[in-house]
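User: I'm writing a tutorial on reading structure tokens. Could you give me a worked example: one chain, its sequence, then its tokens, then a sentence or two explaining what the tokens reveal?
Assistant: Sure. Here is the example chain.
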Amino acid sequence: MKSKPCLPPFFTRAGICGQLLGIWLLCSLASSLAEQQPYPNTNRPYLRPGHPDGVALLPQPPTVTEQPKSSRLEVANELDLVRRAVFSRTPEETVEALNTQELIRAKHPVEESFLLFTNEVGLKFVNNLTSNTLHYTYYLLTNLMPKLTTNDLQYILTNPCLKGLIITNEQTKKLEINTDEDRIELIIACPKEHFNRWRPYQYDARLLYGKMEANPGYPSGHATRGWLYALLLERLFPEKREAILEKGREIGWDRVRLGMHFPSDVWAGQVLGQAIWQELMANPTFMKDLTNAVNQIRAWETNISREASPH
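And here are its predicted structure tokens:
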């Protein structure tokens, strides 16, 4: 009687089943970990510190005067334009402007900033931004606006215009970076300090609504971010382009309604936002990530349509 060959345990039926079970468990564990940590810190910021250079890019802001000193009435009347926007503001516009003022700031997580575009891109997109189904899009947004780290400290310390991004640790008394801020703030802060333009409420106290801002007004940081976000979102949702761009413009004008900015501050912010976008478009890594995000959103939209259609 021939004896059966002695097979290694992993070649037996029980061994093969055990291997398959092990593979299944590993896949389940990997999937579980992916659900818990879908957004690893890729640490690949697309923008170099201080690029583009807003000081070199932007013209000197108009001089605000109560009486026209030239034929350029639009310059002389900027303060009157702000007064009209503030004093004609409706309660609904006030609520919207305050919401814009708060959510667009760098201290908020990426997904909160894009809540401003909920009506334009849809609540499902905003709600799913922190899910695995849109992880490429989330990577794109977080790498666009990475928080400042200790790696940025040397650059900030060598640029006096960025002094507002340094805070003193109350316990150690050492200088530290304000980690509530992000890389885009490195681009906005220098022209603000360089041009050092007063805000409308500093000319007319009646225009102030809420707290005074800690920095000068030109260019508008909210307008910069709002326009940059709009330019990005209209690439992700080209069929909603007009509504998205209109919202981007509205974010800047909301600041005029609150007496925080002159119209020329908003214009300068949008110019700076456009320049940041051009800088991004010249970055091959950004363009690759943008393509991945666009493809992922199209697939996500297709799945939603299938789920919504009757079976």
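What the tokens reveal: Residues 65-146+183-306 form a domain with the Vanadium-containing Chloroperoxidase; domain 1 fold (CATH 1.20.144.10). The chain has two domains: 65-146+183-306, 149-181.
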